[in-house]
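Quarterly update from the structural biology core.
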Amino acid sequence: MNFLDRLLNGAAVEWKTLGEVCDIKRGRRLVKSQLIESGKYAVFQNSMVPLGYFNQSNVQADTTFIISAGSAGEIGYRSDDFWAADDVYYFVVPVNMKSKFLYYFLLVNQSKITGQVRRASVPRLSRTAFEKLLIPIPPLPVQEEIVRILDTFTELTAELTAELTARKKQYAFYREQLLSFEAEEVEYLPMGHDKVGKFIRGGGLQKKDFTETGVGCIHYGQIYTYYGTYTDKTKSFVSEEFAKKARKAKHGDLIIATTSENDEDVCKAVAWLGSEEIAVSSDACFYTHKLNPKYVAYFFQTEQFEKQKKPFITGTKVRRVNADDLAKIKIPIPSLAEQARIVAILDKFDVLTTSISEGLPKEIALRQQQYEYYRDSLPTFK
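Predicted structure, tokenized:
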């Protein structure tokens, strides 16, 4: 028996259209001059972000609503009183239905609802897009238990997300502290110095050159969309024939995206820790050096690196930093033992905040899967 069968324990489930079971009402317009910057009652108009506040409400607490213009099809629920403007439909539910149960049911059907949005200069949704939706009406205790389960997963996911945000801030703080040294403590040298390393531009690798198997390769766009701080496996491959003429990075090299559409992603980098040599695309370069690979990768994430990078960024729509300018950026060079100590600390934060197999992102993904399993079971009532 699935969890719905266990909850029902043989009880009947009635199906009705939303228009039959709920009183669907439309909000009332307010002009901007009536709004205030802060107040007791949030005003919703064309998105789930309050347009402003008003000194009175027209919808009671514990109400589900749908945006009908702008962000048409977005579904909301409020546990407190609010003001619904004229681009909002809200639902007055009967005594045998919980409003939060209706909210979760509508979320399951959101793709159906948004599929009915009329795309124009201002997207619009009419009530006919949802008033004919069939909704199951199990006994009230069953609705309450379903809401309790879904609320639990929602709250837990929110707590884990807040925890992840806090840990990322902590990670950034320690990363900055650990890679900051006084001038007398360590030597600061340009990254292109003979004692440190050199930058080599990538070759003519393009996405059309990818193969199912072969020699590993990293395309510059994958650095800021797929890879983290380091990797020992590539997402893509090229043929052995292509690899013979390609520019290749070896174990320990740092691969850097030198082109992006925004300043933040320019110079995103990944340390290559695999044993084989891999091809590197144009619009990227690789840094071969005498330092701890992860230490260099973490340095590229610091504020001190960002500050040094900014003056070298060129271009308008496409932003670039060339390898010759990267060679001028100074990096602190503590002993290899100290580099390893710093890396060991930062690795723990990296796993906790970015790993989809071990850290908080994995935990959040699992809770989201559980939430979606229970939520998506709603339409399966017989």
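The mean pLDDT is 92.
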